[in-house]
Amino acid sequence: MKNKLLTLAVLISQAPVAFAASSGAAFLKIDSDARAVSMGSAYTALASGVSAMSYNISGISFAGRPEVGFSHTSWLMDSNHDFVGVALPLKGGNSPAGGNRWVAGLGLTRLSNSSTEVRNADRSVGGSFSAYDQSVSVGLARALGRTRLGMGIKYLESSIAGEKAATVAVDMGFSRSLNTRLPLSLGLSVQNLGRGMRYISQRDPLPLSLSAGLSSAIIPGLNLAVDVRRLVYDKQTSVSLGTEYAVFSGLSLRSGYLTRAAATEVKGGGISAGVGLNIMNASLDYSVTPYGELGNTQKITLKKSF
């Protein structure tokens, strides 16, 4: 029974993330910021402050003062995805705008499923199981003029029906404001570089990803962003497109599209939209993404600088 329970748990635990994959730790592919989601995940060049922990670690160097962030997602199949993090400028150095400033980051990401009943062939209850995946990450980034560099390390843990697996992974990021006629930013990111997780006798590689992105404010108040992302072991390449328009200083409207290769096998998985509010050093962002028959996922992110 235990082996049957574990097998079923593994199958079900992969379903909530809605990604067809050959790598493990699929929860690492779920976005953790509502602004990023609403822009189709085109965030490698835009990531800044505490949210950059999940996209481009170099972006935490944009935090000019301590910043905390929290995100919650009502994910698919009654699961929940949460993120909490902090970006902390270290003493010494100049302001981020002038460069030469170190910023440290700390983040916790968790995907959890409620207890699920397991039924036998005759439909009788054969038990239940719960599952969760989580990562704890720390990072350090520095601004050097128009260039920003960052590196982070994270501890990953997964638990399914009492069986656990753990490993360590590394993230690296680079971003630069380019000297062009239009305000243009470049971002490069390597995520989930490390040894795969092992359950019993099987070890699955982590979803190693390589991302490159560009963003530009082509006119005041309008941001355009594009990302190209390669999932190495899944052999998938995706393109993300995002737009953001500031209706006025405290309100932004966003939309995005993520090519289906990295979205889901169901219709509508690549379209997203959202809205953002900014008031007194605080921001509230909301996004919604349709997943066809599986329903919609909604994410809310709250960030505050002190």
Strand order of the largest sheet: 1-2-3-4-5-6-7-10-11-12-13-14-15-16
Output the CATH homologous superfamily.
Outer membrane protein transport protein (OMPP1/FadL/TodX)
Structural class of the helices, strands and pairings?
mainly beta
The name of the CATH architecture is Beta Barrel
The tally of structural domains comes to 1
Straight-line N-to-C gap: 53 Å
The arrangement of helices and strands along the chain is HHEEEEEEEEEEEEEEEE
Number of strands: 16
Task: Kindly identify the CATH topology.
Answer: Porin
Strand content: over 45%
Mean pLDDT, all residues? 84
Q: Give me the Rg, rounded.
A: 19 Å
- Which stretches of 5+ consecutive residues score pLDDT under 50? 1-20, 261-268
Indicate the CATH class. Answer: Mainly Beta
**Most strands sheet:** 14 strands, antiparallel, barrel
Query: What form results from the Cα inertia axes?
Result: globular
Helix content: under 10%
Report on this model:
This protein is mostly beta strands and 306 residues long. It has a single domain, classed as Outer membrane protein transport protein (OMPP1/FadL/TodX) (Porin). The protein contains two helices and 16 strands. The protein has helices at 2-14, 34-38; strands spanning 67-74, 79-89, 101-119, 125-144, 147-160, 163-178, 184-194, 197-199, 202-204, 209-219, 222-231, 236-248, 251-258, 271-279, 282-290, 296-305. It has a 14-stranded antiparallel β-barrel. Strand 1 (67-74) and strand 2 (79-89) form a beta hairpin. The protein is globular. The termini are far apart. Mean pLDDT is 84; it is low at 1-20 and 261-268.
